[in-house]
Each structure stands twice: as structure tokens, then as C-alpha cells.
Prior knowledge:
Layout: H1 3-11, H2 19-30, H3 34-47, E1 52-53, E2 60-61, H4 67-70, E3 75-82, H5 85-94, E4 99-103, H6 121-127, E5 133-136, H7 142-155, E6 161-164, H8 180-188
Parallel strand pairs: 3-4, 3-5, 5-6
Antiparallel strand pairs: 1-2
Amino acid sequence: MDPIRRAVVQLSRLPGIGExxxxxxxxxxxxxxxxxxxxxxxxxxGLEGSVxxxxxxxxxxxxxxxxxxxxxxxxxxxxxxxERPQDLSAIERSGEYRGRYHVLHGAISPLDGVGPDELRIRxxxxxxxxxxxxxxATDPDVEGDATALYLARLLKPLGVRVSxxxxxxxxxxxxxxxxxxxLVRALEHRRxx
Length: 193
């Protein structure tokens, strides 16, 4: 196969990269110095074998424990449960959360063949004896809600506080443009002032 076509095909396998974007990336790469191409290739190949799941929270890291689990300034009695490692970065950007994390690596989705046994739930339950609170930060969709409900039913009998991220109308949204589900959730999760 033509090397340009081969590169386009491989790049278009990445999430969010269609064929046109892959072509633009290949044309850009062809204009770069060979050193950059080699560094990029080495970085991608270097992922294999040097990145693993954190033994405690299951995010991706280069050692046995990630930097968050190693940080003595984090509140080890509070765990935020998320679906994917990239969700950790999103929550960290808020600057508000100072606890630790637990990555499930997915959500319960029977239609996709993903049940509780495919997620990192057993290790979450094993951590509960040392926790005061578990914050369920799964996506606000059918799978995320099902996962949060399933986890809440497992966690509450263990005596740990279980909370869920609030859902509703996004900041800056005009109510007339909010979708029905967001409005329903905003009304359901309203709070006293």
C-alpha cells in the first residue's frame, strides 16, 4: 500500500479523526523534520509496556501508583468514581476536588455486553472500609445513571456516604434553550436558598 494512504488509514482509526483530518495530519507530518517524526513514533510505541493501571485507582500511569494516589495532601477518605481516566483530568481542571479517584473503565451497558464484572467494582468495594464518602461522577446518560444506581445500592449498606454529581442546566444557558432532560434534572435536584 502507498505509504501516504497507509498513514491516512491508520490515523483515521483514532477516535474523532475522520479521513479528511487524517489526510491533513499526514500532509502536515510530511512537512516536518525527520527528528519530529521519529520522536512522535517513539512516543507512541513507548506507550506499550511503560503505561499500566494504577494499583489503587486504576487510572493510567507509568508506575505502580499514579501521582494522585501518591500525593499525601489528597483526602484519602474521599473517592470520586469516574468512568474513564480522562474524566480525572476534567475534574482536576475544576480545581475544587482534593480527594482521590477510582476509575471503572466503562459503565454498565447490557446492550454492549458490559456488566458489573467487566468494571473495576470489586476493588472499589475493597477500599470502602477506609472511606467516608464516595462521589459517583459517572456520565449523566442511561449507562452512567444505571452504573451510579448499581454502585449506590452496593455502597450504602457498607456505611459510606454516597453522593452523586448534580445535573441540570449548564451555567450560561438560557432556560428557553435548555433541553427537556436538563430541565427535569434541574428541577429534581433544586436546593433551598
